[in-house]
Structures are given as structure tokens and as C-alpha cells.
Amino acid sequence: MQWPFEALIGLRYLRARRRNGFISFISLISIVGIALGVAALIIVLSVMNGFQKEIRGRILSVASHVEVSAYNGRLPGWQQVAATASHDKHVLAAAPFVNGQGLFSAYGNVRGGLVRGIEPALENGVVDVGRHMVAGKLEALQPGQFGIVLGVELARQLSVGMGDKVTLFVPEGTVTPAGMIPRYKQFTVVGLFKVDMFEYDASLAMIHLRDAQVLSRLGDNVSGVRLKLDDPMLAPLVKAELQKAFSQEQLVTDWTDTNANYFRAVQIEKRMMTIILTLIVAVAAFNLVSTLVMVVTDKQADIAILRTLGASPASIMKIFMIQGSVAGVTGTLSGVAGGVLVALNLDVIVPLIERVLGTKLLSSEVYMIDYLPSDVQTGDVLTITVISLLLALFATLYPSWRAARTQPAEALRYE
């Protein structure tokens, strides 16, 4: 196959001779800059996607997809509520719960946290806590026996383990002639769970639903009903449908409402990092402008000769656009390959860096997870590739247009 002469000349200009080696070096720097910018953008977005996916998974292992509760905190007839909610085709399971704040005390240690009353037989149907038990089982929670399941961090802070006693103080007190006396109850640790999310591991405790009702004086009422859906991403849609089915006294919320700050922050950070790193790619791409301007200046005589031999201004413009585009494509594809390769192997690279530096890069107390997740999404890679190629192509326009305007007589005057 015979290539157009514009392509042959443009590719030939990429191979530098000694006298224009500096121009070739500047062109190489531009290619490396584009590659690094593209790779950095892919890696950062993959980490952001991985972080969002990991946090979402860990939140949904403890939090339900949709909750139906009452504004006054007392929901009567939860069985009827669960039956009504189950009429929706996306609802897979339902379970009642009682939420409350409590103060845990053991061996002189005191910690505050969330107390959740659950029905063990139904709870495993709506969340995955049962799969994250490191000791004991949720089924060990029996009504009237006042057993408690703690997050591993909360248990560590209280210095308790399986079979130890924990005293739980609740905010509601009992009025006596001597004044207000806080209510408390001693529980036995019958299980420990670890969902690898510090917020839950260090502050969540679960007791049997009936024990929670007695402790909170709710009678047969509950705080609400938790629902599991076939697709968590449909939660806002299902919430809107369920709100129509229930009265105005009942509140329907989903996991995107209760954890909106997490995902909104990640989304904003992802958007800003995309803009910043795209600007880095743009700077690297526009380095091609200076490279091509120098090439055009250096090739004035060659351009004039081509013009006298019959080459049109459009052909001259194509020559330098091909030269710049090849540099842009080379840098982009190199960056895509390097970025995807690093993003897919972050689970190996980051621990290696931590061992070399002798420090932990991520703390679960600050970042909620203690490792760097990665989720390479094809859409992000394609978008980055297209943007980088368009920026590189745009950067070739002015130098190519300037080359096309070269007048043969002026260029050859001093040759």
C-alpha cells in the first residue's frame, strides 16, 4: 500500500538528525508529558472509583437500602409495613429495627455508640453483617438473655471479648424522688463483627429487637423497617414509589440520603481532580505547539522546495498535522497503557511503597479504609483518551497553518 507523501514526510520529520536533535528532544518531552498526564488521570480516577465502590459496599453491608420509619420514632405494626413494602417488585426482604444511642462501660472504659435492636432471623436478609462476624453469630442474640454483638474496634476500646460483661446506659432516665436516675442494663458479649469500616467497627452494637424494645420502652413499636432491594442503585426510585404507598406520618429514606455527604464529597473531588489533571494533559499537549513552531522554522527551505514542486498549502498543513498527531497519539497510548497497568496493580504497588518507606500511607481512622482500592472503568479510559487526542490535534493547528502560509520566494531568499 502506497502512503500519501504528506504522511511519509511528516513521519520522516519525527526522526531527528544531528543538527535538529534539540527539536526532537523537545518533542520527546512533550510526548512524555502527555503520557504522564494521561496515566495520572487514569490512576486517580480509578482510585476515586474504587474508593466510592468500596465505601458503598461497606456501607451497604451494615446499612439497609431503604428504611421506612415514623417521624416520632415509634412505628406501630411493623409487620403490616413490611407486607406493604414487599408488594414492590424490587424489594427482596424486610426486617424491623430499633435504633438508639448508648454509653458502653466495661473495665473502667467508657465509649459512646449506636445501639441497634434487630431480629437475627430477618436481619441477615437485609444486610451482610452475618458474613462479617469474626466471633460468634447473630443468631446468638436471644430475647430476654441480653446478649450483645459489638464491632471489633468498639470491643478493643472497651477491652472486652466473648463472654465478657458490658454495661449499657441509655439516655432516657427514670424519675425518682431522689431525681433523675439513668437507666442501664448489663449485657453479655456473644459476637464480634468487622466490616472494615472504622465508623461502624468502632461505634455500632447490636442487641435483640425485644431487648431493645424493653430498654427503650417502646412496647411492640419499632424505630422502623429496613428493606433490601435487588439493585441498590434503584433505591431513590423505590423510595419515591413507597412514599406514595404509605401515609404522611411514615418517612421513607434510602442509603443515598443517609450517606449523601460521603458520595457527594467523593464526586466533587473526582470532578475537580479530573479538571486539574486534564489541564496538566493540556499543558503537555500544547508543548507540541512550541515543538512544531520550531520544526516549521527549521524546515522553511524544505517547505519552499515542496511548494515549488507543486505541493499545495493544504498538503503542507497535513504534513505538520500528521507529525504533531503522531506525537500526540504516541503519548496518549503510552499513558493509557501505563495508567491502566498501574491502576490494575495498585494492590501490589502500594504495599511495596509502604514497605520501602516504612510507613502506612492510609489510616482507617481517617480514610475509613486502610488500603488503596482501584476500579478501572472503560468509560473513563475512553473519555480520557479522546480528550487527550483532541487536545493534541488542536495543538497542531496553528503551527501547521503557519507552515502552509510560507512563501517560497521569501523562504529561499537567503538560501
Write structural notes for this entry.
With 415 residues, the chain is α+β, with helices and mostly antiparallel strands. The chain folds into 2 domains: 5-57 and 262-411, no CATH class; 65-255, no CATH class. The chain is 54% helix and 20% strand. It contains 17 helices and 10 strands. It has helices spanning 5-14, 21-60, 78-85, 120-126, 152-158, 198-201, 209-216, 235-245, 255-258, 260-298, 300-308, 313-344, 346-357, 364-367, 378-395, 397-404, 408-411; strands spanning 66-70, 91-106, 109-118, 133-136, 147-151, 165-176, 179-193, 204-208, 224-229, 250-254. The chain has a 6-stranded mixed beta barrel, surrounded by 4 helices. A hairpin with a 2-residue loop joins strand 6 (165-176) and strand 7 (179-193). Helix 1 (5-14) packs across helix 12, helix 2 packs antiparallel against helix 10 (260-298) and helix 10 (260-298) runs antiparallel to helix 12. It is elongated and about 110 Å long. The two termini are 36 Å apart. The mean pLDDT is 81.
Mean pLDDT: 81
* Count of strand segments: 10
Helix/sheet category? alpha+beta
Anisotropy-based shape: elongated
Low-confidence stretches are: none
Largest sheet: 6 strands, mixed, barrel
Instruction: State the separation between the terminal residues, measured CA to CA.
Output: 36 Å
- What percent of residues are in strands? 15-25%
